[in-house]
């Protein structure tokens, strides 16, 4: 056999001895190996065919036989000849199929007609609607078609098995072995219940039997215990038995279960939330979801709002409907929230806060939002505001009484002295007049606090001239304390729109407070700066300054660091700045003076 690939099979010892040609042809590493190693050098379907042919050679008393096989590495077809020598020793030779001799489809050999009836080739039972079909080929076409069929079935992405009427497994592709964890090579033509216990796979057997009896395709889901897989099984009846297709759906089942659990958790959360969760189309023509709390909040059933989403607008307070409509349109583009009043059918009025924002999911746009009942919060804020107002009124009333009581006591005392001693009346006239003026100043400050913002009378003024006027007005008072008044002003052209009287009052209060805070020989510096957007006015002194605690109390009624101050001047100044839509800020450090800055929009 020089030049011919050959080997000696010893089926008793399950060993194989190869010549070099056989070793090279099958691309094997050794010349001596086990039978199970050697047979794996052929394709999976060829292994079944070879196993059967060897069985026939030994049991039927044949001297020789042949079969067409395909190797695993090169997918080359060979004509294989086997000669039984003695006691299970068989010579095995390969010859490349140059002329493409007919190859009997697996799992049968060309030499056994009886076995062909027992287990026909694939191209006989894979037919339309499960009916048996026999396709005739010329020798060349037959071999090529069979080779393509073998490749297709072996590479089929789902498990495929063929079971005859005797419940014997006549074929299973590699994918079926992976799914079931069973080697069908070792279980060829065994009864199905010998491979899979009926008590564990009763549901499978029940559907297989039903398909055989009804001759109808059956689909069902099952579970393979050995591999821990969930599978989708399709059973097609044929004239020779059934063909079973198995698809692994484990991941799909797990994802489905995770989704179901997620939906259950979401439903549990949404159904027990006091707030109302909702999902809608961006145009609000369709609601996809709204939680059960909606009915208790708005007094409208979910069925009604699903049928007509615009029904919610009917229970919104008429004065709020326009702003609510605008806010909902903005929610389709950006995050937005709004507070508004609703009146339920039973006449109960509530405050509702709605928060909404857009989301994209799988290429589709939605709006997600939450309706929250903020009635108690609004009532609490209102109560808090009233409490603060009452506290302020009480505090201011006490302050007014205290501030006016002192000068009234002095006036009363000096009037009594003057009545008892007419000759001394003129000596106390000036003191009495000062105290009356003090009372008048307190009353004027309160009148300024109560003056409405709507009474503003805006004019075009020159900021530099305004500051110069105030400094000239307060210059005598500064000279009396030997305090230097300085004015820093960048060259600014143009005017500024404001109310001159209120602007004068701001400057007078700030400069006067600075003069009062500075000791003799000190300095007060006023500066102005005008940009295209705002006017910035600063008053800085080098007085003793304020502690951080004192700084936080600035603006509270009757808080003052002056011996005879009332604290109302700062309140009045803050009120006027607010009326002019400006901002006032204080910076101070103990021992380093104080700076007050006012910014007014242009």
From TrEMBL:
Keyword presence, ATP-binding: yes
EC number(s) given by UniProt: 2.7.13.3
Keyword Kinase: yes
Domain Histidine kinase: start-end pairs: 399-602
InterPro entries: HATPase_C_sf (IPR036890), HATPase_dom (IPR003594), His_kinase_dom (IPR005467), HisK_dim/P_dom (IPR003661), HisK_dim/P_sf (IPR036097), PAS (IPR000014), PAS-assoc_C (IPR000700), PAS-like_dom_sf (IPR035965)
Pfam families found in the cross-reference section: HATPase_c, HisKA, PAS_3, PAS_4
Molecular function GO terms recorded: ATP binding; phosphorelay sensor kinase activity
Domain of life from the UniProt record: Bacteria
PAC domain residues: 336-386
The name this protein goes by in its record: histidine kinase
Organism: Halobacillus litoralis
Top-level taxonomy: Bacteria, Bacillati, Bacillota, Bacilli, Bacillales
